[in-house]
User: Which sequence fits this backbone?
């Protein structure tokens, strides 16, 4: 997604210590921050993904994917090296994972039992979002610098198609019954619908009033897409017609979206220290129900649909380092401070 936007400097100076482990204050609404999972290490991050059946969380971090047992909230392994990893897609029916290696222009095929890389498939330039399409047992790698998607057989790794896209692709979701994959085209302010049988773009829809969409979520039962946008809007669309049905305000620097079919809640995480929780009522009205406080730069997150917990990557940062021109530069990441923040529903916490 945006490893480049969180390409973090590392503070190595003597005297720096790991960041304080603090829980942020609760806000009115269904969620609260429950705990932190310490990971440590150095480097930036991007996507997180959950395998709800296997009870695992996969967290991209530097050149590795960290594997966490989400029933125990402990690290149980890692996958790597994967150069410039953006994230990992899971194929539960095959026991495989697929990690996008942006710096290598490849996708790594992973045995999820052993956590070993089985092979790597060549893609376009800088594969970012990666998605498993179970209807045809294919993997789609969305190439950030090639304006394309590479499609390959999830069992053999054989490339079956390269789909030209109208601009820079970001996150994607799949509707197997409809035979479609939906993908945000960030620099063109559109969503494309890809026909999974024909391996071709079937429709292109504007997201107005949204701009520069990154994260995307889908409500399969009610045929709705939720695109989170750089102009601080979450746009709701009809996934059949592409019609924009409404929008709500969200935070700045957003990068990940999620929809929970069990609760009907939809989420958007921002780098400005907010995580927006919204809902669509039975009449179709779209509204924000909570704005959670998160650590700054926690712009990527994912959802466990079984427990309804949210997981967001986070770290602590030092003071900005002056650049050659004397102006403040990017704030460096405190070494060893990388972690995952866990949010859970208040009702579940009280049981």
Assistant:
């Amino acid at each position: 997604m945006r490893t480049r936007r969180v390409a973090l400097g590392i503070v190595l100076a003597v005297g720096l210590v790991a960041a304080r482990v603090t829980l942020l204050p609760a806000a009115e609404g269904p969620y609260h921050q429950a705990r932190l999972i310490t990971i440590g290490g150095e480097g930036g991050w991007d996507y997180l993904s959950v395998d709800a059946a296997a009870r695992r969380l996969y967290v991209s971090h530097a050149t590795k994917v960290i594997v966490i047992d989400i029933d125990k909230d402990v690290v149980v392994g890692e996958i790597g090296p994967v150069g410039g990893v953006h994230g990992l897609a899971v194929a539960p029916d095959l026991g495989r994972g697929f990690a996008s290696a942006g710096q290598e222009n490849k996708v790594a095929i992973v045995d999820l039992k052993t956590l070993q890389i089985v092979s790597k498939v060549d893609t376009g330039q800088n594969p970012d979002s990666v998605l498993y399409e179970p209807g045809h047992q294919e993997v789609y790698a969305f190439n950030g610098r090639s304006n394309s998607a590479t499609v390959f057989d999830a069992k053999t790794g054989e490339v079956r198609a390269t789909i030209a896209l109208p601009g820079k692709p970001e996150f994607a979701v799949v509707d197997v019954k409809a035979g479609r994959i939906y993908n945000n085209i960030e620099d063109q302010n559109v969503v494309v619908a890809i026909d999974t049988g024909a391996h071709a773009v079937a429709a292109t829809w504007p997201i107005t009033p949204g701009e520069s969409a990154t994260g995307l979520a889908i409500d399969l039962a009610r045929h709705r897409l939720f695109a989170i946008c750089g102009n601080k809007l979450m746009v709701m669309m009809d996934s059949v017609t592409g019609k924009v049905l409404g929008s709500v305000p969200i935070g700045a620097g957003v990068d990940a979206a999620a929809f929970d079919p069990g609760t009907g809640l939809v989420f958007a995480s921002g780098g400005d220290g907010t995580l927006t929780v919204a809902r669509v009522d039975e009449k179709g009205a779209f509204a924000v129900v909570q704005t959670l406080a998160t650590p700054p730069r926690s712009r990527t997150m994912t959802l466990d649909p079984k427990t309804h917990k949210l997981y967001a990557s986070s770290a602590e940062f030092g003071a900005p380092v002056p650049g050659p021109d004397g102006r403040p530069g990017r704030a460096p990441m405190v070494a060893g401070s990388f972690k995952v923040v866990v949010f859970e529903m208040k009702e579940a916490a009280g049981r």
User: Anything to note?
Assistant: Confidence is low (pLDDT under 50) at residues 2-26.
